[in-house]
UniProtKB/TrEMBL annotation:
Source domain of life: Bacteria
Organism from which the protein derives: Planococcus halotolerans
InterPro entries reported for this sequence: Acyl_CoA_acyltransferase, GNAT_dom
Protein name: GNAT family N-acetyltransferase
Domain N-acetyltransferase: 1-163
């Protein structure tokens, strides 16, 4: 009798060796309205030292991606200098439906505490039409405090989560 184990979801800062796997990254049509592919975000991070690219791993394979940004990103949405901004969050379409989003967002708390110990809050901006993402964020402990900001693609809801 073999024992099956649950696949592990982990977070890691982007490294060059993830590049080839992330170059074959697909977003659903819905996601592509709100997020860019990881390598585009990585190039933005290379020119902006306040952005930190993070890879979501599923059993060691890159399955998702997001960027964490300090005050330079936060200040557009919050006056909390102890907050960090989660931006550009996505899960590769080939890995969706496995609970990766939920697990990675739960893992985010300890990742931020370990790597950004001065940060006490995680915030994000989600488009008001992106109801699927709103649902996932809320299930992962993010709270909508009613703050709204206009973005390039419409109204953004600002969600908060302590860490």
């Amino acid at each position: 009798m073999s024992i099956q184990r649950e696949p592990i979801v982990a977070l890691d800062f982007y490294q060059e060796y993830y590049k080839s796997k992330l170059s074959d990254y697909h977003l659903s049509e819905e996601q592509s309205r709100y997020a860019s592919v990881p390598l585009k975000a990585v190039s933005e991070c290379e020119t902006d030292g306040t952005r930190h690219p993070v890879v979501i791993l599923y059993d060691g394979e890159p399955a998702g991606f997001f960027v964490l940004q300090g005050w330079e990103g936060v200040k557009a949405y919050s006056d909390n200098p102890d907050a960090i901004l989660l931006r550009g969050y996505s899960v590769n379409a080939n890995f969706q439906g496995k609970g990766i989003a939920k697990e990675s967002l739960f893992a985010l708390d300890s990742f931020v505490k370990r790597n950004f110990p001065d940060k006490k809050e995680i915030i994000l901006a989600v488009n008001h039409k992106n109801t699927l993402a709103q649902h996932v964020y809320k299930k992962s402990g993010f709270i909508d405090k009613g703050i709204r900001v206009m973005g390039k693609k419409g109204e953004l809801l600002i969600f908060h989560k302590g860490c």
